[in-house]
């Protein structure tokens, strides 16, 4: 019987297989950041162990880093201490680090792909659940805990329990206004936050094949929000074109050999998935969340659902609690929800195409009075590219704040946070209670919806702008 | 890792599904660089509500958490496991756990037990009616026992063995050093390297 893409990549990394034991898998690339690594390095130190493969390990600073005044000492002493701990650990154990201020610094899941380190058919891990992002290249990439970070540092392997396979086939073509973010939010709403539990998802079908690499990363990034172990897309010409010439992409004869291998990384015709889901792209529309988990979403044209409409008691209770926390009323139009803050950035939507999309909507328009808009590029390289294209000028002219690279308000470990009761439209990945700041309320949206929302001050799509009166001052 | 064989203690009913790790331990606690001192951060936002179940005097000192489905979703932060352990929990029962959280818990000796929602419902009813009721989580017999309830649970045999023995995964893997070296020797040269170019 044929094998799926995920099974092929898995099989190619088995170091040891024994009856009754988990497979021991080799890890090709281990990415580190400051938050989930200190206790792992401590463990190595206590056991007198070293990092086995510093040449397959890369660290960057992202979660705690400020997005303003980066040339000054970090104000929060605890954040500063955590970054200093990473610097000390990387120096002691010989790990390459891109610290704040470095041209290669940025969100770990933006940095890996842009350096060309994330490649088809590799295994990629990081102490961060959004490692699923790298699956966009046909890599088997997943988030791990700190004990596993220590395990990979010491052994470059992980013992892993087997997974199930799920195909999500997106038929047809995405309507013009619909982005990769809308697609993945709609998928999560359909299969639920636990729907992917135990599975590696392979996204496939004509609508997926047409996506750019950055859009594919947006889709795979949020696989974890459906509870999946990983998300993958088979590599194709789009993947190869993205990789060619990047600093760590193979060159010369290695490129040819790699390409030959990468072309084999497709699910066999006769392979069988444990579960199959089919999505009709043509039925999709701009999608936003109304609740406190990423599965609680609906098309922007819809209304806040009535908890009483849920037959499952646990879902009904979850919807009741979500509406209470979010300060929303059943039946309210999603388009009537006013926001205080708009955040464009994160490992989900902080890449150059995302910034271009947001800028295209904002060009010649203004951020509504009383709305604060933060634009945080996913990496320094993304920021430099945006400046070269003049996007920073578009944002600042519209009244948005143009910031330095990092995770920023996606999880508010740095000073970029919502105040209690504040409401955001955010291009990030989680609308959990308090995620963007204690008492903050988050609506997950695409960059296009974020920008249109900033202009109108309420949840909106670019199509709503042409219908609305031109804002004053433009 | 501390071994887990069997544990008996009082239990807390957490009637919520989709408890994400941001709720278990909020991000600002993640700046700490140790594995301890997270107990005050456990469910920090919810504990501000005096009516929250962990604040009820009848549940003080409980060591088994009985939670709704999809416990531990979201962020991979192992701090969520440390926070539960620092607070005093030895085991968590739910009808479904998020994968990364489950992996993290078993690596730290926090036993995560999957039981059907119907059994979880019965445990909730029991401990709400009698907060002093004791619940036994027995990894040797693979059973959860409480008054009127005996429920079998499964856990893969290898994970169970490592928990029962309190084994250190890294030491186990390092026994396979020669196989790791052999695998490394046959890796193709086109595989990526982080050495600066």
UniProtKB/TrEMBL annotation, chain A:
HAMAP family: LeuC_type1. It holds the Pfam family Aconitase. Residues 7-457 form the Aconitase/3-isopropylmalate dehydratase large subunit alpha/beta/alpha domain. The gene is leuC. Residues 418-444 are annotated as: Disordered. Catalyzes the isomerization between 2-isopropylmalate and 3-isopropylmalate, via the formation of 2-isopropylmaleate. GO terms for biological process: L-leucine biosynthetic process. It catalyses: (2R,3S)-3-isopropylmalate = (2S)-2-isopropylmalate. Coiled coil: none annotated. This is 3-isopropylmalate dehydratase large subunit. [4Fe-4S] cluster binds at residues 347, 407, 410. One of its GO terms (molecular function) is metal ion binding. Its cofactor is [4Fe-4S] cluster. Its EC number is 4.2.1.33. Heterodimer of LeuC and LeuD. Belongs to the aconitase/IPM isomerase family. LeuC type 1 subfamily. Binds 1 [4Fe-4S] cluster per subunit.
UniProtKB/TrEMBL annotation, chain B:
The lineage of its organism: Bacteria, Bacillati, Actinomycetota, Actinomycetes, Kitasatosporales. Its EC number is 4.2.1.33. Heterodimer of LeuC and LeuD. Gene3D superfamilies: Aconitase, domain 4. It comes from Streptomyces palmae. Residues 1-118 form the Aconitase A/isopropylmalate dehydratase small subunit swivel domain. GO terms for molecular function: 3-isopropylmalate dehydratase activity. Signal peptide: none annotated. It catalyses: (2R,3S)-3-isopropylmalate = (2S)-2-isopropylmalate. It comes from the Bacteria. GO terms for cellular component: 3-isopropylmalate dehydratase complex. GO terms for biological process: L-leucine biosynthetic process. HAMAP family: LeuD_type1. Pathway: Amino-acid biosynthesis; L-leucine biosynthesis; L-leucine from 3-methyl-2-oxobutanoate: step 2/4. This is 3-isopropylmalate dehydratase small subunit. Belongs to the LeuD family. LeuD type 1 subfamily. The gene is leuD. Catalyzes the isomerization between 2-isopropylmalate and 3-isopropylmalate, via the formation of 2-isopropylmaleate. Keywords: Amino-acid biosynthesis, Branched-chain amino acid biosynthesis, Leucine biosynthesis, Lyase. InterPro entries: 3-IsopropMal_deHydase_ssu, Aconitase/3IPM_dehydase_swvl, AconitaseA/IPMdHydase_ssu_swvl, IPMI_Swivel, LeuD.
